[in-house]
Amino acid sequence: MYFMSNSNIPIPLSSNDLPLTIIFLEEWTLITINGIDSIKYLQGQLTCNIVSLNSNQYIFAAHCNAQGKMYSTIRIFYHLDQLSLIIRSSVRDRQLEILKKYAVFSKVTITANDNVVLLGIAGFQAQETLNQFFARLPNILCPVIHYTDTTIIYFSQPKHRFLLITTHVVRNYLLHVLTGKAQINNSKQWLALDIEAGYPIIDDVTSTRLIPQAVNLELLGGIDFNKGCYVGQEVIARTKYRGMNKQKLYFLIGNASNIPVTGESLEIKIGNHWRCTGIILAACQMANQKIWVQAVLNNDLEIDSLLRVREDNNSLLNIYPLFYKTL
């Protein structure tokens, strides 16, 4: 087994500066759903269209309560012929409890798969490196590829990177061969890449506080408005068709005395005063000493708005564009 000590963990880098890196995803969890009612059951639970999902795709989605507020954001795909969800580990127990609660009348088995290894491969020549181990890799047209014991998912943003759902044997072999050729990092590096990509992060402290549109999930293809009923569907559809959503997800870069706390608000400068606004979904300190923040704020902010970490006179955060077009 491979162990990482805090002393040898690199500080996260931007996608432009990242060397070849193997990333341990200890802050993410895989949940599997199998049984003859799997598709039907999840179709009534998630915001995406499970029926249209094929084995070489993944879909962003959310699982919501009846008020349309998200328990979690999800990436759903097939792994070893089973429907599989990747979520943040902090929401794992609650997510399992809710999914199982509503599955009592369906022929499904829902489990957290702690036996698999979730491994990210990103940075300089990530694709060329993986080509040494796998005959075929996923790409933007075919983003999921399957092998006997490994599923590989391709993400195009912020630069191409790969997520492996695999075994301890495969992980250890990759580490052995790539020792001295790739740096090794933990989930903070993958979190930084998700922040840069604009992929929404929902942890336990932000669970059930936001609707999917507020984190740009519609722009990522994670909401299907034609699929029919699912939990929270009435609120989510009404919000869209009546233009009721007043928030969106932002990528902020700047300075702060401390790393902002997930679930807390930021402050915006209005005139000569600072006012509380929004909610922080994720934050990390980068190798260049800058602070990266993913936050949900009002969707009508000016691009040059002045923001800061709450009550931090040394903080200043600026809005940076996401790769997808926001409203």
UniProtKB/TrEMBL annotation:
GO terms for molecular function: folic acid binding. The keyword tRNA processing applies. Keywords: Cytoplasm, Folate-binding, tRNA processing. The keyword Cytoplasm applies. Folate binds at W28, W190. Residues 245-312 form the tRNA-modifying protein YgfZ-like beta-barrel domain. Folate-binding protein involved in regulating the level of ATP-DnaA and in the modification of some tRNAs. It is probably a key factor in regulatory networks that act via tRNA modification, such as initiation of chromosomal replication. This is tRNA-modifying protein YgfZ. It comes from Candidatus Palibaumannia cicadellinicola.
